[in-house]
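Protein modeling request. Please complete all fields; requests missing the sequence field cannot be processed.
Requester role: graduate student
Desired output: 3D structure, token encoding
Chains: 1
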Amino acid sequence: MDRKETDVYLRLDSASLPRHIAIIMDGNGRWARRRHMPRVAGHRAGVAAVRSTVETAARVGIPALTLYAFSEENWKKRPKTEVDFLMRLLCHYLKVEIKTLNQNNIRLQYIGRKHELPESVQREMAEASDATSNNNGMLLTLALNYSARSEIVDAFRSLAEAAARNGGLDHIEVNEQAISDHLYTRGLPDPDLVIRTSGEMRLSNFLLWQLAYAEIYVTQTLWPDFRGVQLLEGIEEYQKRERRYGGLGPNGHAPQPKSHRLQVEAKR
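Delivered output (268 residues):
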């Protein structure tokens, strides 16, 4: 870690780190537009932010990190030239980052409708996850061609198919645990902290089931400018909050609302 990261890290309680952090990586297009560059330049610059964030999270001991890399809506609504570039950039990232992932003991997996991606991309994804499969440190999850609503639809479809194999729909049991067990994220703890860059105040169809009780931290920093120190600042803010999961505080009363309940970082 560099000096700035170290300064923030020393203010953290290492015993109260989030088990799972999810990040909505936003602002690549605006970053490029402010520099009078094409959108793809912002996507390319965002790779350095991914590298710094992933390495910092692994080094401080975050068990799980999920990055919203490519939504189902991106796939369907962005220009084909941009989508094609993103697919090439993904393949390049997977090839060149395997060494770094292994050095940091990071295991890689994916969520989303992976089968809809080009076969060449699917092959690169499989090779990268296989190359890191023996690592037992942080679990890095890339959400690719991902939609939370599609995930919930697929979960109920999977529940129905399982019931059909087990004697019919009369045997189906629907409860929160059953649904969680059929989500893409089964086996992962729900995120404790979700970070969104670029100042936008929405979840954008990301992990809608899993983020029910997550703390939300919004920073004005555009994704290509985001680094490990901004991640640590988000964790620092998370540790200031009282998590009650719908219950009461230690004195039997709900705490007074605080301005940092939904934190928007001042632009640096």
